[in-house]
């Protein structure tokens, strides 16, 4: 027997012991699945049960569709959601191209200008537009100064401001989705088209656009699904004729006689959302929700990727042949600089729409005036002093910190375990399991809040810190799973195997090998889960109490009843918190870009 064979046989006991000690990594999925089953799936099932508990199963639903108020609101919600998704696609595509074509510090600054607003609370971004478009806001003053208006007018509370506000809120989601698609393309295809004599417009229409159609479709559907359940922005920026369907659910929630009918409203909204996602999943694959490929499949070979690219290009080129030739004939003679400047101008407009309202609010937080006006007549720290000296604001601030810390802790423990289970196990149906884990991000928050309210009443959790943190963790869990799954896929498993073969226990392997490798992702996941809870408003509206008020809840109350620069202080602190978090998350974001 050779020394090599002796070494092999000597290693086998260690390998067998490793298998016995590791057991099945799929078991790590159980805590997260059990948590979601109890606090997420069970309430939704109960919501459906109550909605069909009338004299007949369709009694409440018939009432929903028979009352013109709700039917008109449902149609209006679809119209607004489609319009917002279309506007986001129109302005998001050139912005994604602008990021992709930029280099160096310019690319970093443009990407930051897009990413930063994405992580700022919707309530704060909507408040920024209320300031910008108010009677004493900069838009009114600009229009008066250039002679378009003779005096300030009411620019708020109409359909236009609802579309503007929702588009501004959801634009980063569209841009990031399309940019992810553009960044994965083989750039040699475009260069080959140009080298073969095609003009810039033809190369874009026949090569680039067809290959990015899946990313465009994913972005459109993600924005549409998010817009269906919007509640905050249309409430604050719209008028009586702009009420969306989710707003009726919150209004009916205050009525003690609406049980059954209220749940039917929620089920209608949930059904529409799930139907849209199901249709999208049929054509795009459900992986578009978390931006990945099927977890059960190995990475495609180069020939497979080429075949897929050719297939997508052929389909898109067919569309171009059908619809595009009149456009090509019209624009084909334009110089390449026209396309370049179109991308720059539209991208610059998007950046201004996303950043300027936030900058205006931050400046107003230092105003010496006793009311909202821009530019401020002078600068002062009086509103910061008032915020930090107000016991109600500080109590709400510390409550938000405690709830967010608890929620992030729950999400990290469960999400890290689930990510290890889904990446390291060989269990079948990984994509289906992943879909369940991330599905809370597609359920309208008002529907989730309504379903949780009944469960929390049953277990006396309404108004409790732990209950609110657990509810917030439902949304934080998908964030953690997606980030840590990506981080774990970047870890070289041979290092873990080598440590295990040399006698390290599974816990030691994780502590000394896996954990250091995924630490940047873990830090980013912790922060984003914390931020998700810190900003959460809709669930808090359903599950809080007079004794348990968070910072977003206080902000919501003041925005509805009075506008003053203290709200700008809260918004500024939120922006600074997001900036600090993005700086800490920079290593994992850089790793993600390199992996792409």
Automatic annotation (TrEMBL):
Any Gene Ontology biological process: transmembrane transport
CDD domains given in the database record: TM_PBP2
Keyword Iron: no
Cellular component GO terms, alphabetical: plasma membrane
Cross-referenced Gene3D superfamilies: MetI-like (1.10.3720.10)
A family per Pfam: BPD_transp_1
Keyword Hydrolase: no
SUPFAM superfamilies, sorted: MetI-like (SSF161098)
InterPro entries (alphabetical): MetI-like, MetI-like_sf
Annotated localization: Cell membrane
Keywords per UniProt: Cell membrane, Membrane, Transmembrane, Transmembrane helix, Transport
Transmembrane segments: 26-45, 77-96, 108-132, 162-182, 203-232, 261-284, 349-374, 397-423, 435-456, 468-488, 509-531, 563-585
Its membrane topology: Multi-pass membrane protein
Span of domain ABC transmembrane type-1: 74-280, 397-585
Similarity comment: Belongs to the binding-protein-dependent transport system permease family. CysTW subfamily.
Name of the featured protein: ABC transporter permease
Organism: Bradyrhizobium forestalis
């Amino acid at each position: 027997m050779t020394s090599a064979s002796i070494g092999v046989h000597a290693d086998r006991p260690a390998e067998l012991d490793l298998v016995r000690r590791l057991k099945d990594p799929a078991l790590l999925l159980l805590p997260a699945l059990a948590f979601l089953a109890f606090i997420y799936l069970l309430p939704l099932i109960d919501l459906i049960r109550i909605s069909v508990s009338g004299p007949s199963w369709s009694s409440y639903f018939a009432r929903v569709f028979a009352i013109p108020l709700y039917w008109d609101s449902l149609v209006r919600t679809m119209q607004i959601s489609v319009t917002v998704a279309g506007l986001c696609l129109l302005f998001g595509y050139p912005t994604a191209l602008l990021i992709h074509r930029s280099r160096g510090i310019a690319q970093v600054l443009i990407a930051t200008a897009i990413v930063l607003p994405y992580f700022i609370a919707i309530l704060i971004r909507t408040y920024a537009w209320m300031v910008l478009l108010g009677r004493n806001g900069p838009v009114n003053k600009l229009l008066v100064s250039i002679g378009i208006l003779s005096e300030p007018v009411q620019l708020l509370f109409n359909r236009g401001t609802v579309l503007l506000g929702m588009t501004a809120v959801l634009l980063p989601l569209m841009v990031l989705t399309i940019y992810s698609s553009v960044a994965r393309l083989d750039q040699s295809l475009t260069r080959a088209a140009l080298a073969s004599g095609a003009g810039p417009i033809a190369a874009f229409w026949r090569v680039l656009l067809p290959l990015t159609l899946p990313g465009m479709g994913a972005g459109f559907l993600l924005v549409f699904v998010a817009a269906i359940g919007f509640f905050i922005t249309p409430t604050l920026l719209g008028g009586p004729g702009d009420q969306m369907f989710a707003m009726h659910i919150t209004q009916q929630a205050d009525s003690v006689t609406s049980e059954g009918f209220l749940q039917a409203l929620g089920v209608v909204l949930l059904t529409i959302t799930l139907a849209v996602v199901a249709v999208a999943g049929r054509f795009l694959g459900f992986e578009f929700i978390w931006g990945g490929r099927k977890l059960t499949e190995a990475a495609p070979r180069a020939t497979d990727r080429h075949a897929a690219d050719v297939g997508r290009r052929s389909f898109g080129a067919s569309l171009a042949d059908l619809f595009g030739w009149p456009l090509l004939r019209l624009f084909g003679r334009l110089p390449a600089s026209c396309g370049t400047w179109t991308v720059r101008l539209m991208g610059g407009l998007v950046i201004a729409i996303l950043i300027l309202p936030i900058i205006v609010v931050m400046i107003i937080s230092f105003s010496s005036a006793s009311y909202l006006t821009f530019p401020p007549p002078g600068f002062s720290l009086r509103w910061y002093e008032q915020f930090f000296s107000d016991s109600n604001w500080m109590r709400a601030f510390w409550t938000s910190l405690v709830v967010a810390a608890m929620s992030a802790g729950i999400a990290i423990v469960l999400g890290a375990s689930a990510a290890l289970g889904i990446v390291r196990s060989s269990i079948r149906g990984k994509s289906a399991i992943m879909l369940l884990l991330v599905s809370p991000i597609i359920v309208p928050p008002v529907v989730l809040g309504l379903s949780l309210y009944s469960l929390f009443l049953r277990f006396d959790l309404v108004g409790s810190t732990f209950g609110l943190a657990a509810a917030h963790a439902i949304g934080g869990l998908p964030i953690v799973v997606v980030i840590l799954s990506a981080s774990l896929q970047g870890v070289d498993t041979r290092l873990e195997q080598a440590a295990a073969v040399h006698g390290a226990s599974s816990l030691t392997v994780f502590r000394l090998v896996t954990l250091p490798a995924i630490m940047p992702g873990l830090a980013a996941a912790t922060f984003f889960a914390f931020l998700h809870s810190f900003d959460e408003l809709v669930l808090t509206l359903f599950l809080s109490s007079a004794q348990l008020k968070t910072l977003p809840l206080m902000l919501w109350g003041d925005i509805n009843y009075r506008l003053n620069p203290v709200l700008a202080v809260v918004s500024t602190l939120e922006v600074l918190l997001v900036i600090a978090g993005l700086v800490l998350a920079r290593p994992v974001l850089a790793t993600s870009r390199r992996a792409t």
